């Protein structure tokens, strides 16, 4: 009986430490992150309709610190996203790059003994645009000096961690980011500014490692 009780205690301590997101724990996830803009903008040059912006997939990385077994602080980072920008009549006229680092506070449902940890979070996004360039089509139309204003906005996330063992997990998450910018350029030498919202959904599938 005593041996059985000891075995039960050992087993229960193994199973409760086998799955975690415990206070003080740190974990990272890496995987694919796809940015799908839900774009809309003022009319470009009055007549071309709004800008459209292509999807893009890059390597996404998250770093998460668990303040308690339910409250996490997470930073999302990625390799630079690259989008083609155009209008209906012109097709693609430009390429832009951006980095959208995002910091969120999260609530993880369940407890440190749960294998499935769904979560929601909210926080702040900062998007840096860089390497904005008109392509030959844009240049031939007399467009130059493209720049996009960096953006601060709210962000939200919902996701699910499946804890495989003490070290590894798999994850699926969806983010929404409020990204609004002014697209500035010259058309025939005349300065233009078109306020544009990207407000993308970001879909991430990743594997995680817990320290
Ligand atoms: Ni917006």
What does this structure look like?
- The chain has 211 residues and is mainly beta.
- It has one domain (2-210): Porin (Beta Barrel), CATH 2.40.160.20.
- It has helices at residues 2-18, 136-140, and strands spanning 26-36, 40-41, 51-53, 56-66, 71-78, 81-87, 91-99, 102-108, 116-134, 143-148, 151-163, 168-177, 180-187, 190-197, 201-210.
- Strands 1-4-5-8-9-11-12-15 form an eight-stranded antiparallel barrel. Strands 2-14-13-10 form a four-stranded antiparallel sheet.
- The protein starts with a helix and ends with a strand.
Architecture blueprint of SSEs:
Layout: H1 2-18, E1 26-36, E2 40-41, E3 51-53, E4 56-66, E5 71-78, E6 81-87, E7 91-99, E8 102-108, E9 116-134, H2 136-140, E10 143-148, E11 151-163, E12 168-177, E13 180-187, E14 190-197, E15 201-210
Antiparallel strand pairs: 1-4, 1-15, 2-14, 3-6, 4-5, 5-8, 6-7, 7-9, 8-9, 9-11, 10-13, 11-12, 12-15, 13-14
Residues 178, 180, 197, 199 line the site of nickel (II) ion.
The major pleated sheet works out as: 8 strands, antiparallel, barrel
Looking at the structure, what is the overall shape? elongated
Average pLDDT number:
93
Report the sheet-strand fraction: over 45%
CATH topology: Porin
Share of helical residues: 10-25%
Q: From the helix content, strand content and strand pairing, which structural class follows? A: mainly beta
Number of strands: 15
Query: Could you give the distance between the termini?
Result: 36 Å
Write out the strand line-up for the largest beta sheet, numbering strands in chain order: 1-4-5-8-9-11-12-15
What is the gyration radius calculated from CA atoms?
22 Å
Q: Tell me the CATH architecture.
A: Beta Barrel
Question: Uncertain segments of ≥5 residues (pLDDT<50)?
Answer: none
């Amino acid at each position: 009986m005593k041996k059985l009780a000891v075995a039960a205690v050992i087993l229960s301590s193994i199973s409760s430490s086998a799955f975690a997101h415990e206070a003080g724990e740190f974990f990272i996830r890496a995987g694919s992150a796809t940015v799908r803009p839900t774009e809309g903008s003022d009319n470009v040059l009055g007549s071309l309709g709004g800008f459209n912006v292509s999807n893009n997939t890059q390597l996404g990385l998250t770093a998460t610190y668990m303040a308690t077994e339910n409250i996490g602080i997470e930073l999302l980072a990625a390799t630079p996203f690259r989008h083609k920008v155009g209008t209906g009549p012109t097709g693609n006229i430009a390429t832009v790059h951006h980095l959208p680092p995002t910091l969120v506070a999260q609530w993880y449902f369940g407890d440190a003994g749960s294998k499935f940890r769904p979560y929601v979070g909210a926080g702040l996004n900062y998007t840096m645009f860089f390497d904005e360039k008109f392509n030959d089509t844009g240049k031939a139309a007399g467009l130059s000096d493209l720049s996009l204003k960096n953006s601060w906005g709210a962000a939200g996330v919902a996701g699910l961690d499946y804890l495989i063992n003490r070290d590894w997990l798999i994850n699926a998450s969806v983010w929404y980011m409020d990204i609004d910018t002014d697209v500035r350029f010259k058309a025939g030498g005349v300065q233009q500014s078109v306020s544009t919202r990207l407000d993308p959904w970001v879909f991430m599938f990743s594997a995680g490692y817990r320290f």
